[in-house]
Amino acid sequence: MKPSVPNAAVLYRRLRPALAVTVVAMGAVMLTSAPASAVSRPAIVSVAQDQLGNTARNHESPMGSGCNYYTGYFRSWKPATGCPSGDGVQWRNSDWCADFAKYVWRNAGVPYAEVPEGSGGILTGWASSFKDYGVAHGTWRTRASGYLPQPGDAVVFDWDQSGDIDHVGIVTSANSSTVYTIEGNSGDRIKANSYSRSNADIVGYSAPVGAAEVQGTASVYGVLADGRLTYTAIDAATGQRTHGAVTSTATLGFTPKAMATLNFNTILVTEDSAEGRLYQIDVITNRDSLVFSPPVLLGTGYTHELLAYDGNTHLFGIAGGVLRRYTINATKPALSNISAGELIGGGFTLKTLTATASNWLLGTTQSGQLISYRINGVESFTRYQLRDTTWQVFDYLMSPGGGVYYGHRPEGSMHRYLDANPHDGNGADVAGLGTVDAGGWTQTLLSTQPATVS
């Protein structure tokens, strides 16, 4: 549907008729995610964003013809005259906002979204079927109820308040005043839109069955002042510690400066020395205590004050305000597995640094700014200032993925936050979720394994 033209003469009344991950903690801790019926809200938003950016099919072809990929994906009985084929699908002519929303839910693993409409599925080519879904499964909320829409919800519209639902979109985030969406068939294409939450065109919201804000476990390694290593596991959904902290008997044998966790049992640590020695730490177990092999010297020249690994081969380091990116092509890298550093840019005068996804960084400044960076390539990045102040209280910032952030304060407290859409360049949807612990985190360095939470 076309929300920019809410005129009855052009409104379409008829809209053409699990994810479960098990994490095995090496060394003996078994950690599992939410049950198979759960679906991650960030995963739903991610599918919608991927389709928004897919230039091969994020619009009708020809424009204004009604021919679209998403109707063809689900409904082979719709007319195809004049429509192209692409991505293995014969495109077909129909209003398609509901087909797009169903595609997003289905490909994110939303329960019951995979059931075809001809086989008893509730979701069809009608936008009203998304309200039917919520009513049937007890997840329907009206706009008038004051419900705060969540990422991944379906939002349905009635453009002229006639009582007939005209359009549906996917919520990407919301705050006290505004709801942000990605919608199919919005001006003949997929578009990102925003609305006042009090907009009378909004009828209400259906949440996906089993929707979870986040699921997964944050695996946090740390170094104590005496050089011993620690390991702690945190349930990302609840903020509760599920294991540890467990502590090593052995010490590193050198003064560490920066660290980055590559995977569950591999850590990179730099030495606080003029030579800038880089060591690899192999963790053998972290069940009842933390045992690791003697540190392996990989090379010198790594004088970075901050390190972060994005979970997708990229190690980032900041030295003297200059950011470089290294590519690592092995889970247990030798120096030959680490590329020469690519220059990303200068001016990175950050106090903390973490990676939130592949080629996405997050950091804070001494003055309290919270800043997100999209790394586009060599000497190319996009900067987003999410917050102007107050984040100076943290000496370490960590993200295991999924928009979950952990901030450590010098007195030993650990705090958690959720960014409903961590890559929208907007800090309005960063919400505090309280403390993991009010004290006890006495580590002098902290790092979390990337991409374990979604």
TrEMBL record:
Keyword Signal appears in the UniProt entry: yes
- For the Peptidase C51 domain, which residue ranges apply? 93-185
- Looking at the UniProt entry, the stretches that span the membrane are none
Q: Pfam families from the entry?
A: CHAP
Q: Which UniProt keywords apply?
A: Signal
Its signal peptide is 1-38
* UniProt-recorded name of the protein: CHAP domain-containing protein
